[in-house]
């Protein structure tokens, strides 16, 4: 079984909507380069922040 990675070792980005940092998630594994928002809520409200 593969060893678990520490959360501090995972890549992180800053959300374009709220400006908060967020870390890599398994569900974003194949699309990490295109992830821009930390949540669906920030994605829906992106125009309000701009």
Characterise the protein shown here.
By secondary structure, the protein is of the alpha+beta class. It contains two helices and two strands; from the N terminus they run ββαα. It has a two-stranded antiparallel ribbon with strand order 1-2. The chain is elongated and about 45 Å long.
Annotate the secondary structure layout.
Layout: E1 12-14, E2 21-23, H1 40-44, H2 46-49
Output the keywords.
alpha+beta; 12% strand; 50 residues
Nutshell version of this structure?
The protein is an alpha+beta fold and 50 residues long. It is built from two helices and two strands; from the N terminus they run ββαα.
Let me know the largest β-sheet: 2 strands, antiparallel
As a percent range, the share of strand residues is: 5-15%
- Which runs of at least 5 residues are low in confidence (pLDDT < 50)? none
| Rg over C-alpha atoms, rounded to the nearest angstrom | 13 Å
Give the strand order of the largest sheet, numbering strands 1, 2, ... along the chain: 1-2
Topology, number of strands:
2
Shape: elongated
What series of H and E elements makes up the topology? EEHH
Helix fraction bin: 10-25%
Class inferred from helices and paired strands: alpha+beta
Average pLDDT: 87
Distance from N terminus to C terminus (CA atoms, Å) equals: 44 Å
Tally of contiguous helical segments: 2
